[in-house]
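Two quick folds needed for the group meeting slides. Do the first one here.
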Amino acid sequence: MHKIFKCTLLPSLMAASLTGVTLVPAQPAAANGLIRDLGTGAAAGAASGAVRGCGSLLNNAVKGAAAGAAVNVANNNRRNRRNRNLAQDAGVGAAAGTVVGAITGGSCRSPVGNAIDGAAAGTVIHILNNRK
C-alpha cells in the first residue's frame, strides 16, 4: 500500500497543486507606477534635504523613496488615479518620511525636517501624476 501511495497518489497531487497555482493567478502583477514614484520620491527627498542642508544624500533619498511608495499605495485603489488629493499625498508622504527618518536616524534627527522631506516628495509626485 505504501508503494502505491508513493507512485500514484503523490504525483497526481503534485500535478494538481502546480496546475492550480500556475493557471489561476489572482490578478496580473503590475507595478502601477511604483517604480516611477519611488524614483521621483527619492529625487525630491534628496533635493529637499539638500535645500534644508540637513542629513546625507542617501538618507534623504531613502526617506523620499519611502514617501513615494506610501503615496503610490495610498492612491493605488482609486478608480480615477488622476483625480488625486494634494493634501492627502503630502500628508501620506510626511507621515512616511517621519517614520523612516526615525528608523534610519541620520545626522539630522528632526521629525519636522523628516516630515518636510516626505511632504515635498508627496507633493512632487502629486504634481507629476496629475499632469498626465
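Then this one, please, same format:
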Amino acid sequence: MTDPGDKDFYQRSPGARLPEDRPRGGGPRRPVKHRGLLATTLLVVFVIVVVLAGIALFP
C-alpha cells in the first residue's frame, strides 16, 4: 500500500457538512455556580471530625 500523502488527504471532501462534535464556544454561557458558605463550612467541619476521630480511635 502506498501513503496517499498530505496533499491528497486534505483535498478530499467529507461530503455533507456535518455538525461539530465539540463546538468551540460562541453559545450562551451559564453562570458558574459556587457552593454556598454553609456547604463549605460543613465540609471543613466533617474533615476535622474525621481526622479527630481517627486520632482518637488509633492513638
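Slide caption for protein two: The chain has a mean pLDDT of 78.
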